[in-house]
Amino acid sequence: MSPRISSRIAAIAESATLAVDAKAKALKAAGRPVIGFGAGEPDFPTPDYIVNAAIGAAAVVSNHRYTPTSGLPELRTAIVNKTKRDSNYDITVDQVLVTNGGKQAVYQAFATIVDVGDEVLLPAPYWTTYPECVKLAGGIPVEVFADESANYLVSVEQLEAARTPKTKVLLFCSPSNPTGSVYSPAQVKAIAEWALKNNIWIISDEIYEHLLYDGATAPSIPVLVPELAEHVIILNGVAKTYAMTGWRVGWMIGPKDVIKAATNLQSHLSSNVSNVSQRAAIAALTGDLVAVHAMGEAFNRRRKLIVGLLNEIPGFECPTPQGAFYVYPSVKGVLGKTIRGKTPTTSAELATLILEEVEVAAVPGEAFGPSGYLRFSYALSDEDIVEGIGRIKKLITEG
Q1: Does domain 7-45+291-397 have CATH number 3.30.479.30?
Q2: Is the previous residue joined to 125 through a cis bond, with omega within 30 degrees of 0?
Q3: Are 184 and 153 in contact (CB under 8 A)?
Q4: Does the pLDDT value for residue 399 go beyond 70?
Q5: Fewest CB within a 10 Å sphere: which of 154, 215, 299, 397?
């Protein structure tokens, strides 16, 4: 008898970040005082002017109907203008495809250019969804790991050591999820020039482009190395910048033939994105960045707070990230020690222990690459950060 579930789908790992967040929310709903550091989403409401645009759009009959798979013309134009404004990158509307959130853009990017057996270089720690999308496309993810001593940033030398004749794509994400690390312009240019020299595509995830601190910048790859533009796919969306994770609006920017092929795929997969959400995204992208900067100031304050608190815990080593809203401490100094009668030897076991003993949820490093790390999102209140990290410190330091 053949299996009930296809081997292709059965091989997919559950999203560890969503699983941790769901468990924390379930415990909280049951009345437990859980503090969740697992979710990768801003805790702010979507700005009012965006919500009001959606409310108005819901009453317009044309928004109740199918619209072009590639996205509302007005939204694609707004993405063209936003890309010029924020990245100084000139594109045309036929280089843009609007997707159901950033995840669909990730999936379609790999599905469109990766063939069975192609290798995709995946700097680790990586976002948990990347390798699954590579595998769904028939590709082979090849991890290239940089630890805390390198601030989780891979070098050209590491990439070259991992390259084989089957290497087709490099996944690039700066600012990074899960580490918050940011590549310098010089590092970005060096990696892009290496890719150009070796005829390697780059899929560049720019979803955290506006969440930068300490003067860091995140230049777009085809701006630094224009000759690579025909081999770059840019992924982005409104989710992180405008606190719109639930609205599900992302996009792909790439060569016209790639976008045409990805649009064809999406026409069979999901058709157009919700028109009301697209209208909200238009308001977001054509409005000013005042609300975005206000959220950024809050994240920056929380970033400094959580890094300081984590580095006070014996056995934790937390680099200071320059982007996104995550910290990624090494917890290798804690592994192997007995805590309340248990001796965790992996970060997955430590995360379970912390959740069970002090009701604090963090995502273990195994979700993003090697064991020995925990990811904490600081997209929650200052009070919760102090309380949550305080619980962990008390647990680790008790006799």
Answers
A1: no
A2: yes
A3: no
A4: no
A5: 215
Please state which CATH class domain 48-286 belongs to: alpha beta
Amino acid present at 169: V
Domain ranges for the chain: 7-45+291-397, 48-286
Q: Residues 194, 163: contact at Cβ < 8 Å?
A: no
328-to-39, 168, 324, 356, 375 alpha-carbon distances in Å: 14, 29, 11, 21, 5
> Cα separations (Å) of 17 from 146, 288, 328, 392?
21, 31, 14, 19
Q: For residue 124, give both structure tokens.
A: 């680790």
C-alpha span between 380 and 361 (Å, rounded): 12
pLDDT reported for residue 31: 86
Mean pLDDT of 327-354: 95
Average pLDDT over residues 187-210: 98
Strand partners, 36: 361
Please write the tens of the pLDDT for every residue from 201-232.
999 999 999 999 999 999 999 999 999 999 99
Cα distance between residue 205 and residue 398, in whole Å: 41
Indicate whether 38 pLDDT > 90: no
Number of other CB atoms surrounding residue 59 within 10 Å: 9
Dump pLDDT digits (tens) for 274-307. 999 999 999 999 999 999 999 999 999 999 999 9
Q: What is the pLDDT of residues 106-158, one digit of tens each?
A: 999 999 999 999 999 999 999 999 999 999 999 999 999 999 999 999 999 99
Positive or negative, the Cα torsion across 154, 158, 160, 166?
negative
Phi-psi region of 34 (alpha: psi -120 to 50; beta: other; left: phi over 0): beta
List b or e across 339-358, with b for residues whose CB sees 16 or more CB atoms inside 10 angstroms: beeeebebbbbbbebbbeeb
